[in-house]
Specification:
It comes from Symbiodinium necroappetens. Among the domains are: 320 residues, ABC transporter type 1, transmembrane domain (ABC transporter transmembrane region fold, Up-down Bundle); 124 residues, P-loop containing nucleotide triphosphate hydrolases (Rossmann fold). 59% of the residues lie in helices and 11% in strands. The protein has 23 helices and eleven strands. Helix 21 links the parallel strand 8 and strand 9.
Length: 658
Amino acid sequence: MSWRNRMRFGKKSRDEDLEVVPVIGKESEQEDLLERGVPAETWQDVKPKSTVLGAALMLASMFFRDSAMGRRAISLTVAVLVLLLLEIGAIVYYSSVQKEYMTALQEKNIDAFYHGLWMVGAVIIFISPIIALHEYTSGMLKMTWRASLTRRFAGLYLAAPGYCEGNPFYRLTLTGEIDNPDQRICQDVHEFVGIAVHLAQDIVRTVLNIASFAAILYSISPAACYGVLVYSIVGTIVATKGFGPWLGFYQLQRVKQEAGLRYDLIRVRENAESVAFFEGGEAEWSKFNTLFSGLLQTVYKSVLVTSGFGMFNRSFHWATFAVAPLLVGPAYLRGEVQFGVISQASMAFNIILGAMTLIMDKLESLTDVGVRVRRLEDLELSLRKCRNEMQMSSAAGLAGVQCIASAEPGPSDTAMLRFCKVTLRTPPRAGILQQTLCHDLSFELVSNQSLLIVGESGIGKSSLLRAAAGLWTDGRGTLQLCKRQHVFFMPQKPYMFLGSLRDQLLYPHVEESFVSNSDLEKALRQVNLGHLLEQHSLSESKEWASLLSLGQQQRINFARVLLRSDVRMALIDEGTSACDPANEAVLYELLQQRLCSYVSIGHRPALQRFHSHALWLHKPSLESAASACSPSASDPTEIEFMPMAEFQAKNPALAYRE
């Protein structure tokens, strides 16, 4: 008896054949969630982009609200501020000492002059350990902040316990919403924290300097005080309006292009053998040269803008060397002030000018941190969006394929895998319409049964496995599978963990120490990889992805299953495609002895003897196509679930013969 279901690809003739759903994360996200029935209390609010300052404050609030590091963050921040106050106070006192000994020098008062020099030494002795302690606490603040943000973003991205559920890294890669999340988590966080801490201290120092030295300068010369204010405001406006937008634009372009360039080189390294077989070095060089030329063009334009800004900035500051003496000098010549006052006024003028022109002096740093803030904000919004979509898909009664854990494997009639009226859609991707892959697909696989999914390449076999593994959930219906910890997924190209041979065999539970070396060695010999033990120790770390052939990597995958006592079911996506027939037979015989059930995708007829049932994806006969009610059904795809013997009887050309 067969259960027949229709599955259409790329058809737009009927709404049910090709459905487009609103993409989470747009301005209408909240309305879309509510329309779909998601309770507001179950999802995180994804706010639209804020200003750069608002986004920076959001990143700062994450640090101070961190349950693990919040108190330490506050303590370090207070310590930095106290040390900064002591440093500013010492500088203010130093200005008065400088005035006294310069006046003594002008009056030729030897005792007062040397007393002033001794006081300068005392100030230096006092301030030196304060500066050192200030640098230390500032460095610790940056390290702690970076650790907090990096762990937060990496935890959300990699779905660490306590941060998020599901596979956000897979969804972001699939949808392509943001570029280079790895660079954002590591480099952008590092750059942002470093610049942000320095800028925050500069802002505090600016406020304190203005408050401390403005009174001194005003008491000496009100004209000088007002003059530095006007001069700095004019310079800041010219710099921010004339150079700021261009610096920010080219900085953003440069960061994106450098990330793309590194990604291109990483792809060549990861696929070095394939590139070498194709002799593709020249093509890769041509692509690299194109990307690098684009980067150089951006750098060149940035250099032009930076050169203009540097010329303006230096000229602006050099012009101030004569301003303070010009404003205070006439008063000294009239005998109204002492000679040391000129030195004190010049120092106060330059400190206030530096404080008032902070934005102009730090314009390049501000544009850089603005770029980093935007990239981190985009990452945060995308991760929140993934979390909302996962919460939406798991909420009861909502649109989405519901993955339900079945009972523990036991009796022969226990359902290991059950599709109940599953309609599956492709995940949402930027610029690509979602397609409905199957309608109301239903079948059941019970304990001690095995299933082979067959059909021509590209017809949608792997999509069903992705749904069974919980990776693709867009659609509707119920998918029942034994508990996740009892399921092992085996892709065509296994993932080789960066670690020792022991880590490869135990992945993803690499920290499990109760598995003995003898068990590991036994598993390797069972899958005919015992010769690896003659060449490598279990603790030896190698680049296993390049050292082992694809067939050997696939056998490592089967060894992982043999070592997992909790695995009851395997989902195998052409997991023996690179193995020879003899090794393939050995691997599946081991599976039959070890697992209650398994589902495979494969093209070799020899696999049929290791499976009790078949799920056949195929083009329909002309009679069934003509009888279909849809006028567009001239080219649908049918799915049939049946015992393997029935499949072989219906398809003698595809049946296995010894």
